[in-house]
Fold:
Amino acid sequence: MNSRIDACVIPFVGLAICLAGSINAAAQENYTVIDLSVSLRNGYYFSEVRGINERGQIVGQVSQPYCGGCWRAALWHMGAVTVLPELYTAYAINNKGQIVGQGVGTVSYDFPALWDKGVVTNLGSFSVSFAGGVAYGISDLGQIVGSTWTDKAPHFDEPVLLHAFFWKDGVITDITPFSDRSTAAVGINNSGQVVINSFFGLIWENKKMTFRFALDRANAINNKGQIVGLGLDLNEILQCDFTLTGCPSEQAVLLQRGSYTGLGRLGIAPSEALAINDKGQVVGEAYLVYDIENNTFLKHAFLWEKGVFRDLNTLIPPNSGWELQSAHAIKSPLRGWKGPGV
Structure:
């Protein structure tokens, strides 16, 4: 089995796979699809893949068919899968192999958790009554971000109030700028820059908050401070005729050095960037057409690099039997290797 992993995708709801890449003399990227569920036993299969580190270790969630609540976090490495029974799901893994996600609570509430060499740490909560939450990101320095419940009264349109947190050396800190609005810290880099989602994307750095109004949702940040998510291309907004033809839909957006770049779409429907590596390569999902029968949009996974927006389905063998719908993680290329990922 090929153990070099580039990007992790969801070909359809309830199944997760990854791609391994190579490059030929014509500089054309080619990907091989790797089904992560092959080595699983007892009926488990990968239903979510959320994170990948530079060693090619992958984390996500495994499930059992026809079994509500039978979900557990899992770690894939070099073809072997380790189910982590202490965690419901895993969202990120750093280059030291530390994993964060949601721990299995002993009572009724699942907690933000750190898994490190088999030892699980409850990261804490801002609530006395409801100790639930989830950890979404971890840096190589062991700094962790996520979201946890509070005891404060929620906004009128929210059933509970969750606040973004920053955790370091056993201390959990509330970094929410709006006390009456739910927020979630979804990513952190090795410089300690944090991306936060509320009703628009935010950046937290050096105990200060920066507002990014053109970013409707921030999903990831790399070690160069580049941020990706969902938003509007400012050039399209300036050229938009609000009274006659309307405006284009939202799309995958890259924010770097204070400027926004719309990455593209596969049609006129929205796209969204979900992950970015340190080379600036971006993956995500792009909607195609509306599926009336299932009341949803059909979507494909995409790869963006140096201004080129590509459907990942065009980079795998046409007879592979897979349709790639969403890409959630991408790692950086090996030194001297010029294809995306690995």
Summary: Helices lie at 234-238.
